[in-house]
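---------- Forwarded message ----------

FYI, see the Leucine-rich repeat-containing protein 51 record below. Original note from H. follows.
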Amino acid sequence: MNMEQSDLKTFCNALHEKFSSQYDFDNLDNIIVRSLNCPQQSLDKRKIIGLDHCSIKNAGNYDDIANSCPMVQELDVSSNYFEDWSEIINITKCLRHLTCLNVSHNPLDRDTLLQHDHNLSTPQKSIHSLVINNTGIDFQSLLKLLDIYPSVAVLHFCINDISSIPGNLNKQYENVTTVSMAKNNIKTWADIRKIGKLFPNLVSLNISENLFKEIEYEKNSNDFCHLKNLNIMECPIDDWESIENLQHLPQLRELRIKGCPIYAKKSLTEKQQRCLTVARLPNITKLNGSNVEDEEREDAERLFIRFHMKGENKPTRYQDLIQTYGKLDELAEVNFDRSFIVDVLVKGDVESPFLYSLDCSQTVRSLYKELGTRLKLKKNKFNLVHFEQEEEENDSTYVGRKMKKSNVQRVTSYYVREGDSVQVIRLDLDID
C-alpha cells in the first residue's frame, strides 16, 4: 500500500468524517443541511460500522472511541493501513459490545503479537467472529490473538501464506466451531489434522485452494469428530482413496469439492463427477450446495457398481455396495465417454426454447428432476416428449415419444441424438 503519511487518518477521524451529524454548524450564521431524504442514525446508537478503505493507520483517542460508538456490535476496518496489532486491540477494548471484527487486508505482516506488552493479553470476551484474511499473520500470533479474544467461534484467516501448523500445540480452543483458511499453502493432511486437534468442536471447515494432495485416514483418531461441513475445492487431490477416506469423519454431511485433478483423469463431466463422489460417501446429504436425495443416491451407487465391475483393482466401497444391491447386469450404456453428452433443444411450455447438454447415462427420472429444477417445476407437474430430428423434419404426423418417469430406465433407451428436441408439456396449465 502506498500512501503519503499526511493522508493517513486515525480511527477517530475516519469515524467522525464518515458518520458526522446530519447538520454541520460552521458558525452561528450558516447551517449546512447534508441530507433530509432519510434520517441518519445517531453514531452513538449504531450497531454496525463500516470503515473499510478509509486510510486508517492508528486508533486515536480511546475515550473518544468509547464515547462515540458505545453500542457497536459489528466493526469492519478492512483494507486500511494498520501495521500494529496493538492499535486494533486497543480499539476493541473501547467497544464493550463488539461481537464481530473484520481487519482483513491490513499490512500487519511485520508485526508480531508475541513482542507486545503483556497488558494487551487481557481477555476480551465479547468478540465471537474474527476475520483476519490477508494480514500476513503468522500462526503463533494467531494463537495469541485467540487468547486475547477467547470467545471467538467463527474464525477466518485466508490468504496468509501459512504453509505448516506447529506440532507442539498443547492448548485447545473449544469455542471455535467455524474455520476458513482457504488460499493458504498447507501441503499435508497431517497439518490439517492439527487444526482438528486445536479446535476439537469444529463443525465447519473451509480449506479450499490449499496444496495437500492426499486425505489420510488415521484409525482410532478423534480429529474432526464434530465436523459437518467441509470445503476442499480446488485442492490438488489426485486419488479416489482420499475421497473415500472422508467417510470416516462420523458427522460429515455437507461437502464442497470441485476442480481437483482426480476429476480430470477421465475427463469426467460435472454430472459424472457428482455421481462417483456421491456413491463413495454414504453419509453425505449435500454435495456442492445441492441436496443428495435417496433417489439420486441409489442411481449413483448402481452406476458406480457397473462402472467398476470390470476393473481389477476395485475400490473398497465397491464391495460395500455389492452387499447392498448384489451383482448387477452390465448395461452397455453405462459409459463415461463424451458421446453420452448431446445437445438437444428444449421447447414447448417454456418461456423460450433453449439448448441443453443432456447426459444420456442418467435415468429418465433424474432428467425430470434436472429440468424441473431449471424450470422451477415439480416433476409431477410436467411431461417430456422426445422428438427425433430426422423424423420431425420428414413426417408431419410425427408426435414424438413420451419419456416415462422411470427410476431404472436410462435416457439412452430413447436413442437421443445430437440435434434432437425435448418438448415440455406442463400439466398445471388451464386448457381452454
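H. also flagged this: The CA atoms of residues 346 and 352 lie 9 Å apart.
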